Amino acid sequence: DGGITQSPKYLFRKEGQNVTLSCEQNLNHDAMYWYRQDPGQGLRLIYYSQIVNDFQKGDIAEGYSVSREKKESFPLTVTSAQKNPTAFYLCASKTRDRRGDTQYFGPGTRLTVL
Amino acid sequence: GIQVEQSPPDLILQEGANSTLRCNFSDSVNNLQWFHQNPWGQLINLFYIPSGTKQNGRLSATTVATERYSLLYISSSQTTDSGVYFCAVERGDSWGKLQFGAGTQVVVTP
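Structure tokens for the assembled complex are given below, as produced in the milestone run.
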């Protein structure tokens, strides 16, 4: 089946540690996105990538880093510089089309900092 | 940036009732999508609807782009319709970057 997978589903981290969240897609989409969701709120964009080896900061990039070495993969690292990392993280992808298209989301990773 | 406002913030429905959710946006958009987030957090695409009207089963949506709003209609609601409904918009120059509203929390009671 084509789709987006994220792992792990739940992640616990001690303060001061970096963690990496995985996002893989087999939809052959060019563009990929990372969003953060806090309780009772909408999603906010962290980083996005339109094509391999290229990525751009979103609205809340501070304390996060990404890489895009393969079309299928867009991992997100939550660094110790992120002051309030406990949240639900969602990855998405879409075809690169200026006319607009539907974004498809993965199941998400719940990160808790202890 | 573009502002997206959804109303109402919360909605409690009895099974079988109809409802309308609204999304207002502050600027012209290239893309508008409605999503349903289930209790486990999964976001499901409902509609890609930058303008016009679409229907999918008991759900339908209308976007009036010139007046900068979109409506999502739920008819004959079922308990499985519970969850959060999000409207998200994309500006023409933003390459897929979606701006989300805060969502409408819907609870359908038996």
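The mean pLDDT of chain A is 91. Chain A has no helices and eleven strands. Further analysis is deferred to the final report.
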